[in-house]
Amino acid sequence: MTTLQPTSRRNEWWEATKTAVCGLAIAAGFHTFVAEVRYIPSESMTPTLQVGDRIIVEKLSYRLRSPQRGDIVVFSATPELRSQNLKDDLVKRIIGLPGDTIRVQFGKLFINDQRVAESYLQDAPTYNYGPATVPQNQYFVLGDNRNHSYDSHVWGFVPKQNLIGHATLRFCPWNRFGWFPYINL
Prior knowledge:
31% strand, 12 strands, four-stranded antiparallel sheet
């Protein structure tokens, strides 16, 4: 028969401290390698993302597969943006993959000379861009609110190493709760 020994207060504090440190380590690892919560501060992705939305950004899949056209991604500021003293992370939609030729003309998007229907846009773009070919290991990203988005059509391409992850779930506000659908461009 096993009897429990009374524990000292010092032992209780030590156990609580070990538990707290382990919990913090697990949380930090989850945030660094698996997923994190992000807040949407601007209208550059409306109507898909609204100011104040809170999303889950998943980080694991890009270790196993390449980013896909149509993914909504969060990325750290590119060298071009940093040279403009813009250091915040951004959220945009991947439009062009490495090797793609991108053109925006008369309010329409063309990828490799094929017109792309974009049902998720706020408004058709009022600018022309390209043609430009996406370099290897880089991506061309645009906001869904094309005319009010500071994106690749202004400052260039996103290096693959700048990608943090992709948006998978909106959890706030509750009336817009849901998974982001896969969009095949």
